[in-house]
Amino acid sequence: MKAAVLHERDGVPRYEDFPDPVAGAGEVIVEVVAAAVENVDRAVAAGTHFAARAMMPELPAIPCFDGIGRLPDGRLVGFGNPRPPYGALAERTVVAEGAFAPIPEGLDPAVATVLPSAITAISMKVAAGLKPGESVLVQGATGVAGRLAVQVARLLGAGRVVATGRDDEQLRELDADEVINTTVGDDELLDAFRRNRTDVVADFLWGRPTEILLRAMVPAGFAFPEPLRLVQIGEVAGADLRLPAESLRTSGVEIYGAAKGLGPATMGEAYGQVVEWARQKRLTFGLERVPLRDIEAAWQRTDLRGRRLVVEP
Ligand SMILES: NC(=O)c1ccc[n+]([C@@H]2O[C@H](COP(=O)([O-])OP(=O)(O)OC[C@H]3O[C@@H](n4cnc5c(N)ncnc54)[C@H](OP(=O)(O)O)[C@@H]3O)[C@@H](O)[C@H]2O)c1
Questions:
Q1: Domain count of the chain?
Q2: Does residue 44 share a domain with residue 94?
Q3: CATH number, domain with residue 202
Q4: Of all atoms in ligand 1, which is nearest to the CA of residue 259?
């Protein structure tokens, strides 16, 4: 079969022949229909993700750990966790029986590949307890997941929405009440965050911008802290930050991981909700569809501007 094959850590996958997967006991072959290439897939390929060893223990291997495909009986499903070295960027892959869920009738498979990023945004409610009317800061709002988070915040009934990013033109495209460009100097950014304190933060950046945000939440003098619930989702601006003790002790900041509260029930509910919103066209996002044979050039693209790269074998 044809596949996108990675030969070196942090290399670029190439369109090549690869041995067809053979299903073992308790496994099933999936004909891949669509797979999104996300930051997590790049981090696994580069070996920098915490699960990289488990997901891609050796090379050569095929990247991407989930996608949409057809089972041998013709059912269209979303699948996950293919058995290494198989991944989703191939004509076929192999997964454990049960490592898939049906895709509802009429939902474009390419659209379905993007929905997990919207499900993640529901962590504002599941992990951070967002209530209608509360204000939200989307930290890193110009990427695919950030743009979805702005929309999900509105759909969950948020009041004021503040969005941060590095590009004014892209920030203007968002349905936000206030935007902050994080490329300004530290003091200016600190002031902007102080003026725009929210109830909840959906953080896709970590690194410098979130370090400054947390510093901005420390009161200037003795005062009762105001609560702020930050849900940590992504780390495109840095895997680490400096967290002075006072940023927690006196600020009212509570930090949650996006996985908090996730389980089969909350996941199923979130999935049903985003499918419903997608069908009603209340969630919109850009897709860049490419055929598998173009993977080498597509993997290296830097011009996506908030559109998801979706590979269709
Ligand atoms: N936990 C989950 O389930 C989950 C789900 C989805 C996403 N995520 C994570 O969320 C993050 C964003 O994902 P995505 O799919 O939205 O990515 P994406 O579409 O590739 O967008 C990346 C965004 O990050 C910004 N960015 C890149 N480098 C930056 C830096 N050094 N400083 C500040 N901003 C920077 C980009 O801004 P410019 O436009 O200015 O370049 C762009 O807005 C990733 O860390 C991803 O792994 C997690």
A1: 2
A2: yes
A3: 3.40.50.720
A4: 1
**CA distances from residue 122 to 99, 139, 266 in whole angstroms, order as listed:** 22, 15, 10
Going from the Cα of 146 to the center of ligand 1, the distance in angstroms, rounded, reads: 7
Measured distance CA(79)–CA(81) in Å, rounded:
7
Band the pLDDT of 236: cuts 50, 70, 90: very high
Query: Which pLDDT band, with edges at 50, 70 and 90, does 196 fall under?
Result: very high
Rounded Cα–Cα distance for residues 304 and 235 (Å): 18
From atom 46 of ligand 1, which residue's Cα is the shortest distance away? 234
pLDDT (tens digit per residue) in 95-138: 999 899 899 888 999 999 999 999 999 999 999 999 999 999 99
Evaluate whether residue 277 is within a structural domain.
no
Domain hosting 6: range is: 2-114+286-312
- Tell me, yes or no, whether 200 and 251 share the same domain: yes
290 in the same domain as 253: no
Question: In which band, very low, low, confident or very high, does the pLDDT at 1 lie, cut at 50, 70 and 90?
Answer: very high
Mutation probe of ligand 1 site: the residue of 39, 180, 182, 241 with most atoms within 8 A of C-beta: 39
Q: Is residue 32 part of a domain?
A: yes
Cα 287 from Cα 110, distance rounded (Å): 8
> 171 and 91, same structural domain?
no
Q: How far is the CA of 143 from the centre of ligand 1 (A)?
A: 5
Query: How far apart, in whole angstroms, are the C-alpha atoms of residue 154 and residue 230?
Result: 17
Residue 264 has pLDDT above 90, yes or no: no
- Is position 23 within any domain? yes
